[in-house]
Structures
1.
Amino acid sequence: MSWAYPVWEATDTILFSTDKQTSSGPHIRDNMDIKRVMFSVVIALIPCYLFGAYNIGYLNALALEVSRSMIENFIFGMSYVLPI
Amino acid sequence: MFRLKIKKGHDINIAGKSAKEFLPTQNCNSVSLSPQSFRYIKPKLLVKEGDIVSLGDPIFYDKLNPEIKWPAIASGKISKIIYGERRSIQEIIFDIDKQQEQSLQEVAPKNLLSKEDITNYMVEKNIWPFIKQRPFNKVANPSDTPKSLIVSLANTAPLAIDHNFTLSEQKEYIISALKHLKQLTNGKLFVVIRPGEFEYLSELEYLNLIEIEGPHPAGNVGVVINHLEPINNKDVIWTVEGHHLPILGKMFSKGVFDPSVIINIAGPVVKKPGYIKTRLGSPVGIHCKDNLIKKEFRIISGNILTGNKIDMQGYLGFYDSSISIIEESFDRSFIGWLHPGGSSKYSVFNSYIGSNKEPYNFTTLQNGSNRAFVPVDAWEKVFPMDIYINSLARSIEANDIDEMEQLGIYECDEEDVALCSFVCPSKTDVGSIIRRGLDLIYFDA
């Protein structure tokens, strides 16, 4: 069952951070880990998602030559982005 | 004088820095010399358990280079020789006989003028192992001609000793050591100092003083090599530890082997961090006893980035000048990856709220699980050498020796990439990768 270890480890460390110890130099480590890096990536991309959603609605309105408000464009775009 | 300003790097703000005062001297009854401190040697013993030896007597030699012998670091009886796997020698423990040491006479050497004279004298007196070489960071070969010699008196590692404080009363011996070491090379003798320290060295014309400014690892020999004396596979540069200069100086000027050194004890769990007057290979237990505030701790011989883990019955390493002690913690914080920050988190990255201005109580927690390389420029942020460290690590993992040589592996050592391991979010041990690469090249050659 060693193939399942990454699955178990990912679930275990979502709730409680690992208690793994350093074994040799350096004996201390930064508090940053890949989990937090990836979470930072998600946070950093949120403005892109939001603008991208608005952009879909805006370009759709432009192509169909209809007039929509900003919020309507945004809602339209989110209906395509959210399922992804 | 040359000024070298390093921008990349990081000074880890760890709690427990040594105060500039001496702790009460503890009497050591035994010391230890471990062949494990020396790389790429095959030690062959010249003594056995129960033998009586004097300071400086040859204890073992390197089978690969029989002229290099290691000295007895105490006068007295060899009480125990500890063997490890496959009869490898782990420790040679000496019971100190202080009366025997005090009875040793000074015999000042004469005519140490040329490289051959000094080399022969050092080999004859068994003090050659104080000289190391780069690449490979091993004991130098006396028959080599080094491109230059570098001595760093600016130890920038976290919790490391301040040479300006510990060597302040050894001016005469430092000058003697440097004067004789200069003869060993046809190139330059570089001495690395911090601004405003060791001002008397600027009067010595045979030195090339380098004033370094910047965060760790600015004081490392490897950084100086990369910036000022780049080497390839044919070049060799010799180095000497700063705290060994008085030992060599006394040997050159008075002919006496005095194994006294000044080290420091520091760390977040040390009640009273400070400096200690002790000797080579001293036991750490006598210095740590009654000076710790936690029950779970890790004792490290050397600094916290490059040192070796030892226990309370262990001894200081031959090249080490610090005893660092940190807490062993097994805390598992709830959803630690979402923690906002504050004083309970320390990071070089800007993803935690709060700064690293307060000294932090580091523990032995790895703070994350091992992952594959994820190049987020973390290593490059703290690596001041002009080397593509990520590509170098990948070429080592691929066992591509040509690529390693082209990327500059000869200028690297574990101590230069220790900060890369510290900041790596994937918790990669970059130092062990570099060591593996150097081992591959050494044994392949």
2.
Amino acid sequence: MGMPVIIDIPGKKAKEEIFRKVFDYLSSIDEKFSTYKKDSEITKFNEGKIDKKKISPEMGEVLKLSKGTKKLTHGYFDIEKGKKIDPSGLVKGWAIHNAAKILIKNKILNFYLEVGGDIEVMGGPWKIGIRNPFKKNEIIKVLSLRNCGVATSGTYERGLHIYNPKRNYEKADEIASITVIGPNVYEADRFATAAFAMGIAGIDFIEKQEGLEGYMIDKEGIATMTRGFKKYARPN
Amino acid sequence: MATSTLPIGQTPSALGTAPSIRRFGDDEDGGRTISTPASQVVSTPSPTLITNTTSSGKYKNGTYTGSVADAFYGNIQVQVTISGGQITDVTFLQYPNDRQTSIEINSQAMPLLKQETIQAQSANVAGVSGASQSSAAFIQSLSSALGQAI
């Protein structure tokens, strides 16, 4: 996926083997779902080289989950990009959550698991920062999390003050980032993806969902949070 | 006890350039294993490219198209225009999360949600949630465009 994978297991319990298992699983997902790999299942699927009835169980599951997520998010989560499909906005959280299940199955119940800014934790509490979308080395919020997932959807800050929006930008341009905390990172990721696409309305959408909390940052650096978000935030 | 298989913050040369991994705060009591897959690595650009062009002009005038960079959720590709030696326009030729949708969210009367100005926090954290991949891809494409203008 081109992103760093971080597995943090405190204590002496974890053997090299368990890390290997998780890395191997995530690599196998990358082999299947990377739209940038010529031989991945998703690329072949998009090129019409795979019969819909012969897709792998994982691909089948991802397609099914994507369909359900599209409904749930009023179409703002949609894996169809022109004539091709790209389920990346769901695969990442889904894969990390499955990787977390491998750890749990191996009786590792206190861990931090991250792929490129999407995180699932068990045990803890774990102190996790939210990145400043305008300054990538800065944290603007500290969360204290146990047994949940957190994902952030966002875009590079328009630090370049002179640019000419010739294109008609979609709602995804309205906000800088939205961070979603959910019961696991699969939920957090798919809803963060959808909420970001909704622009400013995204935080209201998260507020309406049970079991999700959100923290949205707009272009001016003003954050809006759902009502239950505060319980996760630590004072400085 | 888990062992680190790659030095933190360094880019493994065998795998090509990779985004450097920033650690916030101290190690937890245990191991941290960090790995960057060899595929789709994002090359780390020169950090000086975006800011502070001098009035005498650091760049040659013209329009330059950057490489297509993987932002995970889609591609980012930028086009840069240089006039008078300075950046005067940056246009997105490709941008992730392109959606064709005309469905509006039903917004009933919503409770007013709490707002605050974002403020830098100085805490030791185990990790950070952020949309890093999009940022890196933007920088990659932009630096590739600006690299042609020097």
